[in-house]
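Appendix B. Chain record.
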Amino acid sequence: MKCLVSKIIPFSCVDGPGSRLALFLQGCNLRCKNCHNPWTIGRCNDCGECVPQCPHQALGFSAGKVVWQADVCEQCDTCLRVCPQQATPMAQTMSVDEVLGHIRKASPFIEGITVSGGEATTQLPFICALFAAIKADPQLCTLTCLVDSNGLLSETGWQKLLPVCDGAMLDLKAWDSACHQRLTGRDNAQIKHSIRILAEHGKLAELRLLVIPGQVDYLQQIAPLAAFISRLGDIPVRLNAFHAHGVYGEAKTWPGATPDDVQQLANALWAHGVHNLIFPALYL
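Structure tokens predicted for this chain:
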């Protein structure tokens, strides 16, 4: 069982509770205009556009495939900016055992692992195998296994994942389906269904709302949004503040969310009975 890995961060404090190893998988089934990891959306098709543009000659061709030389790479990210596929030539194919090796090295210092992306559940069989292996390992079984997901997974998919997963963190990027489609390229019917499924099973670790001034419809749709959240139970709702750092395209021109923008949404949610709110730790 193998997966395509974009990046591994051994110690992260922003990808779930406590210190966690964050595993970022390559590939996503949304096309969010505000994506802060846009190079994780696509998959390298070995077109070679990035090879001659690498200023450190860390990329080359071998048997028709783009090859990345990690020992030469200076992490300047030129390849990420020029890739027409919104991919990275630095993604690596890794087995469950190889990922477990990284987790074992970090295990004395972390509370769990979070699989993110891209969209983690596009490589569902690997996640299920990885989490099952962690639960069965005497050294690792105390680690919590979380998924950071966009929610575009079928109910059948969640039925496979939930027995080995301790929880999932989901984003609701807009309430109205048309607004969601404009921001992400897809409607949000399946995402809302996923949120309900996770809440019913006690596995919705966190619901996230991203405040993007002038783009999202949370305030305009506050009554149905708050009613939906209230029916989930006492779920933590994280309010994130948009910033343009790292995004591509038109979203680079969007203004970042200020503390006042976030507070306005918080006040509206409080007024409609939603109280378990988590505020941004940082505004850029």
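Further analysis of this model is presented in Appendix C.
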